[in-house]
Amino acid sequence: MQQAQALQSSINTLQNTIKADYATIQEHQHTLAELQKEQQQLSAKQQEDIQTLGNYLRTEYEQGDSLSATYFNLLINAKSFNDLLSRTTYIGSIINFYTNLKAEIAANSKQLQLQQQNEQAVTAQLNQTTQSKLQMENSLNSALAKKKAFISSLTTAQQETLAAQSQAQNNIDETERLIAAQEREAELAAEAKSRQEQAAQEAADQAMGRLSTPAKLNGSMGQLLGFAESFLGTPYVWGGTTPKPGFDCSGYVQYVYAHFGINLYRVTWDQFTEGQSVSKADLEPGDLVFFSTYAPGASHVGIYIGNHMMIDSSDYGVAYDSIDYPYWAARYIGARRVAN
Questions:
Q1: What is the mean pLDDT of residues 119-147?
Q2: Angle at 10 between CA 120 and CA 166, to 5 degrees
Q3: Which site from 32, 35, 71, 153 is most exposed, i.e. has the minimal number of CB atoms within 10 Å?
C-alpha cells in the first residue's frame, strides 16, 4: 500500500508537470503564429516598396528618358555649384534609400526566420519532453494497477488489517514527524567535530580518495536509474541506509550509487562536496541535486532523471518529484556530477 501511495504521488507529480508543459507549448505556438504574421506583413511591405520603385522607374521611362539620362539631365541643368551639390545629394538619397530599404528588409526577414527556428526548436523539445513524461506516466499507471490488483486479491481479513494499518499510519501527523526528523538531523549537523575527529576524517579521505571528479560507473546510467526506480514506495526512515526498514534521502543516494561501484559519503552536506559542480541548465540524468530545507546548506538530495524531474526519498518515501515545484525551486542550491 505504501508503494501504491508512492506511485500515485509520482503520477500526480507527472500529470502536473505535463499540464504545465502543455501550457508552455501553447505559449510558444502563439509566439510562432505572431512571428508568421510579422513575416507576412514584412513580405507585403517589401512588395509595396518594390511596386513604388517600379512606378517611379516606369514614369521616367514613359517620359522618354532612361534613368541614367534623367540623372544626367538633373546634373547638367544645375545653375550653380551649390545647385549641383544639391542635385547630386538628391540622386544619392534616392539610390541610398532603396539600397538601405532592401538591406533592412533582408535583415528583418533573417531575424524573423531565426526567431521562428528557435521557437520551433523549443516547441519540438517540449513535445519530446512531454512524450517522455507520458510514457513514464503510463509505466507508473501499469505498476499501480498491479499493486491495486494485488491488494484486491487479498482476503477480506487481510484487507481489513491493511486498511487499519494504513488508517493508523495516516493519522500520524506527517509534518510533525518530518520536523522531528529534521531536528535530529540538524542536531547531528550542528555537532562540532573535535580536532581528533577532523584529523581522522582527513586521514580517511587521503586513504580512500575523495571523489573530486565524476567516476566511471560499473554499468550504464540507464541501469542506475532503473535500479533507483526499483525502490519506488520504499518508506522514508530517518538515518535509514537500506531498503528495509527504509531510506533517508542521502542514505538512498549512497545505496544506489554503491551498487554501481561509487562510494559516496553518508550525509547530504558531505555528498555536496563530491564530484563536479554542474549548473542547473546543464543537468544530466544521474546528477545529484541538492536543496536547503530545514537548515542552511545542503540538507536534502535527490537523483536527477531528466525533464526537470528527480527521484528521492522524502515524506512519501521513494518517489518522483519535480525540481520546478515552488517548494523545491525556492530551496535549490546546486548540483554535483559524481558519475559518467
A1: 82
A2: 165
A3: 153
What residues have CB less than 8 Å from 318, skipping those under 6 apart? 6, 228, 231, 232, 233, 234, 236, 247, 252, 311, 312
Identify the CATH number of the domain defined by range 2-152. Answer: 1.10.287
Give the residue extent of every domain in the chain.
Answer: 2-152, 177-337
In degrees, to the nearest 5, what angle opens at C-alpha 240 toward C-alphas 206 and 211?
25
If one counts every other C-beta atom within 10 angstroms of the C-beta of residue 228, the result is 23
Report whether 203 contacts 195 (CB < 8 A). no
Q: Which three cell numbers stand for residue 243?
A: 531498503
Which residue in 336, 217, 226, 220 sits closest to 276, CA to CA? 336
How much is the pTM?
A: 0.57
Cell numbers at 244, concatenated = 528495509
Nine cell digits for residue 246: 527504509
Joined grid coordinates for residue 102:
532592401
Average pLDDT, the chain: 77
17 DSSP β-pair partners = none
Core vs surface per residue 134-169: b (16+ CB within 10 A) or e: eebbeebeebbeebeeeeeeeeeeeeeeeeeeeeee
pLDDT at 37 over 90: no
pLDDT of residue 221: 92
Contacts of 81 (CB under 8 A, 6+ apart): none
CATH of domain 177-337: 3.90.1720.10
pLDDT of 196 > 90? The answer is no
Q: Measure CA 319 to chain center.
A: 19
Reduced to 3 states (helix: H, G, I; strand: E, B; else coil), residue 77 is coil
Closest listed residue to residue 308, CA positions, set 291, 327, 323, 287: 323
pLDDT at 40 over 70: yes
